[in-house]
Amino acid sequence: MTVEQTDAPQIQHVRLTTTVNGNVVTVHVPPRLTLADLLRDELRLTGTHLGCEHGVCGACTVLVDGDSVRACLMFAVQVEGRQVSTIEGLEACATTARLKEAFTRHHGLQCGFCTPGMLVVATELIDGSDPRVPLTETCVREALSGNACRCTGYQGIVRAVLDAADPSPEGAP
Amino acid sequence: MSGRGRYLADLAAGALSVVFVRSAVPHALINTIDTSAAVGMPGVVGVYTGADLGLVNDHIAELHVPHPAFVDATAFRMAEQRLAIMPTDRVHYVGQPLVALIAVDRYTAEDAMEAVDITYSPLAPCLDADAALREDATPIHRHLRDNEAASIHIEFGGLTPDVTADLTVEGTYRIGRHGAVPLEGRGVLARVDARRVSVWTSTQIPHMVRRGICEATGWATEEVRVAVPDVGGGFGTKANVYAEEIVIAALARRTGRDLVWVEDRQEHLVSAAQGRDQTHRTRLAVDGEGQIVHWADDFTVDIGAGGLWVAGVVANTAIHALGPYRVPRARITGRAAFTNKTITAQYRGAGRPEACFALERSLDDAARRLGLSGAEIRRRNLLTAEDLPYPRPLPYRDGVDVVFDGGDYAGCLEAALELLPVEEIEALQDDHPDLQVGHGVGCYLEATGRGPYETGRVRLMSTGQFEVSSGAASAGQAHETAFAQVAADALRVDLARVRVRQADTDLVEHGIGTFASRSAVLAGSAIRKAADEVRTLATARAAELLGAPVHAVELNDGIFRSHIGEPGSGGVGWDDVARAAAPGGAHEELGPLDVTEVFRPQTVTWTMGAHAAVVGVHRRTGAVRVLAYAVAHEGGVEINPQVVEGQVIGGVAQGIGGTLMEEFRYSPQGQPQSTTFADYLLPSTCDVPEVRVRHLGVDTPGNPLGVRGAGESGTIAVAAAVAAAVEHALGDRVQVTETPISPALLRTALRQEQRA
Ligand code: FES
Ligand code: FES
């Protein structure tokens, strides 16, 4: 029934050079390896979560050249020569830091599994929109509508994003 | 916070990957399982069927057996379940694990899976509880005479139904099959050493998982450790013991290798335990004023191929069918059926939302016929401060007679209506001309804090910090915050000094787990007891250090001081007490302060609440949108109001999902149809409104913290309130009797309305 054999199968590997969180990495990967698995398994950046692996839940969202993408739907080889930012890389981003604080204050997370994806999308939303036009609840809800949260009912998340987006020093009420 | 969580899949480095080959058919005899082609593939380490596992017990025992007094009073019966951990002869649902395949990584394992060849002789699938329970139905489990998994009968008040009734309404109400579907799926990691197997699993009940593993493998308790990493949501589906947990542990020891299985979403949607799927046939008799005279509900539950919590679900449904009302006479009967659908467990509410839907819908039906509003008929029946506490003539599952111990249920409804008055529909109607807007209410009762017990442990570390642990695993209920707060209060220290450890059978030897809104009540109370004891012991030690009599020493802001002697003279802190307990300290011989306590409640406490909903029905499509929502509930003392509110709001979102979009659908041949997030729809940011929550504190003497559970409060009455609001929006041209509510049904009503 069983054999003791642990050689990896002989699959052609491809050389890949990309920048992840500011560091240039060169790896040899099978062509079918997803970006999510590259980040999680090869680079041990486990803050990028997998909730569905078919592009619906948004838990795996990362930034590629500044735009949010679903890491479960991309192959690693597709980021050749591009800039990838994961939640770990956003540690240094002031907007993300403000968002994290606001998430805690507004109870925007319970289990925390959706949180990295939410933070990536919210960071993109805040940094990508005109700071002079205040974000409304409706546009925050629309921007986050591709990210599922099963715990919070979204209320705290939406409040946190509005709060963090408010440039006034006191934040939103 | 985020990015720091360590979920099961994040711990997998270095372990070999396991995948399961699962049954592709709902009901069949297995002819052959041929793994030979897969075995030789590069990267494959081993391929195992149920016959290779060497288990001493090939099935998992039920997780809950009601008290004999309850069984007697309710004629409760249940069948012995023997669903095989990995069957070799017969399959009972699509998704049942049949073969475990180990390979160097998941890609390789999934390739090799394709080479496993299983042939079946199909049997007719049974996909409907009523059909399964018919006398001539063929039993799907060979060791049983029929398909009845459990049955219950509650009757009191004696009178024949219609004696004083002016109006009797009958109905059939269905709650569809949906479930917990946490964002993180299940996963198990097992690491082996010479002595034992350590298992990390994304579970709410580590101690029960340990027991399940030991019972199936025959290992001694010390041979298994079960620890819980960060859990990405549970809601009941992870309060279960799974075949996969046993197989991974058994194979890790057998192969001597570290193994990990992380399910994918499709696997989750066909093989993780589901919930609900109930049909209620009701008969409600009221007098001319709308007061309940007699209430009868006969329900069936489709538990699929098996459900280790069947006793809990059936008993919960029956007891909660009584509602927060004056019900002088009732007859509640129910049966659970085995079918060829996926297994079930408890899902947030576990019978309560279903029972609530049946009673609340019946009340609305009676109200409409009497020309009363939904709020009015409830006002006339809800228990008030004068009625409470309200004893019911039957015992709870723990054998203790039921007494609803609330404050003023009628007042709670008024609070919900104050939060979201009917009048608000006018403004919302103006804002949404494309929708027809309506308002509805629903009330519920929730027994919380079920026993038998929970364990709490508090340790003073040598650093002067505290470590807290319990048997209740956190699956995102913010236990860390709540438990730390309970301990910090009792120890009179800053929250930052307390660290709450994730559940681990190494930290507390005994435990039950997190489900049924029990953690705050039970684990919280046990931690409180342990922290109190630590404080008492520490006071004695501090007195010695201070050279003062114990009775003179008091603890304030983390400092023990004696009020004898010079005022203002120094005290001793927790750090001093900790140092004294360490080797070389004054209390070296007494050893560290480390207390484990058990809290065993006398019985459950009851949380009552009222929901109000405003919905809009799209005039053309019939699609329903929830525009505003309010929940008022009679909780007890809130350890952390934000945590409780978060639980309620999250519960409402799940309730909205089950009411409007979520459903596990099956083809007529028994093939699951909801196998991706494109088919099984979770509510998104745009499907859930702001929820207004009001907490009406009603203390309970049932536990030292005075808390009542609230984990399910948000979910239970959503279907009832939303259904009522939909009917109101459509001017009562439609009767909503099923969830998920079908837009097609509403479109028909809308067209009739346009014609009229
Ligand atoms: S895991 Fe990528 S979208 Fe769900
Ligand atoms: S906090 Fe659990 S999924 Fe969002």
Task: Describe this entry's structure for a reader.
The complex is a heterodimer of chains A (173) and B (756). With 173 residues, chain A is an alpha+beta fold. Chain A is 30% helix and 14% strand. Chain A is built from five helices and five strands. A five-stranded mixed β-sheet of chain A has the order 2-1-5-3-4, covered by helices on one side. In chain A, a hairpin with a 2-residue loop joins β3 and β4 (67-70). In chain A, α2 crosses α3. Mean pLDDT of chain A is 90; it is low at 1-5. The model of chain B has no long low-confidence stretch (mean pLDDT 92). By secondary structure, chain B is α+β, with helices and mostly antiparallel strands. Chain B is built from 19 helices and 30 strands. Among the domains of chain B are: 401-449 and 604-756, Aldehyde Oxidoreductase, domain 4; 454-599, Aldehyde oxidase/xanthine dehydrogenase, molybdopterin binding domain (Aldehyde Oxidoreductase, domain 4), CATH 3.30.365.10. Chain B is globular, with a radius of gyration of 27 Å. The complex binds FE2/S2 (inorganic) cluster (2 copies). One FE2/S2 (inorganic) cluster sits between chains A (109-114, 149-152) and B (183, 233, 476).
Q: Mean pLDDT of chain B, rounded to whole units? A: 92
Distance between the termini of chain A: 65 Å
Strand content of chain A: 5-15%
Order of helices and strands of chain A: EEHEEEHHHH
Bound molecules: FE2/S2 (inorganic) cluster
Q: Give the tally of β-strands of chain B.
A: 30
